[in-house]
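Subject: Sanity check before I submit

Could someone independently write out the structure tokens for this chain? I want to compare against mine line by line before I put it in a report. The sequence has 363 residues.
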Amino acid sequence: MRIEDLDTPAVLIDVDVMERNLARAASYARQHGLRLRPHIKTHKIPALARRQLELGACGITCAKTTEALAMMSCDPPEVLIAYPVVGAAKIARLVELARRTEVTVSLDSVDVAAPIAAAARAAGVEIGVLAEMDAGLRRVGVPPGEPLLDLVLGLRKLDGLRWRGIAFYPGHIRSLDEAGQAQLGSLREALWSTVGLLASRGLKPEIVSGGSTPLLWESHTLPELNEIRPGTYIFNDRNTVLSGACRREDCAATILVTVVSTAPDRIIVDGGSKTFSSDRLASSSEATFGEVLGHPQLRFHKMNEEHGFIALDGAPAPFRPGDRLRIVPNHICVAMNLHERAWGVRNGEVVAEWRVEARGRLQ
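---
Independent answer below. Compare away.
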């Protein structure tokens, strides 16, 4: 089957670009002695997680317990749930996971940890735990230093849990411009002082887990860090390009759409917010939702649920209904969650079809 035979909208993955992205990150991790535990939130496809494991990943990272259960067919040796697990149903799934593989969860509260510990004891399993440090995003986590030490001390008192180290997510650092370098320096100081404080109490962490795709290639500049959890790097997107973490040619994922209507100043394609998500660029106020490949003059500036508005901005209008376009989305992670399947392509041919097994697994 060729690309033009696919119905649209369709997520296309250039398998050669994807393999290059995976190999580069795996090589980088090996070179710098880092455990690579990729976040599957980007692709949500067990076959691609299996490929990451084949290339040397130590395990996988998931946000939710349902997401992790959907990925069990890739037989991960370790799973990190990088999200607070709150509520009886979620804890029950966490225990189920712990019966099937080694499970660790990152937490920022003893109150959240206590019922997990009780469930683990009742089930006769052990669950690993990482103390979550707020690296500056101000989302979850406790501040560096004494607050993190207090959290670790509290977690260590809970039978059924095994404290393994600390976790953080530097999502506030989106580029390595002057401001980003300053934020990276602050993070480096916070890690150094916090890990040093823990070590002074005889609490040297086994795992210091962090990182993101925008900071992937700077991970080795954080001496205390020994585990990285990038997600977007497998495909990359417009945000990754603008962060400086990849080149345009490193974007493996595009969304194939069809022109369904034309006018002198615009074309309408069959993909809107239910295809691309409504995410704008993370580092720009520009109101666009993707880059139209091969047509730099076009501006994808507006969406309804099923309609994408692309302004011609004075350019010639050779488009007709039925024409196909490929668009690099701003944020591929959210877009993937909107699609039931993705198609692997090479040189115009469709070479793979994958079900997005973990899409919609939000609990």
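---
OP: Matches mine. For the report I'm noting this point. Residues 3 and 360 are 26 Å apart (CA to CA).
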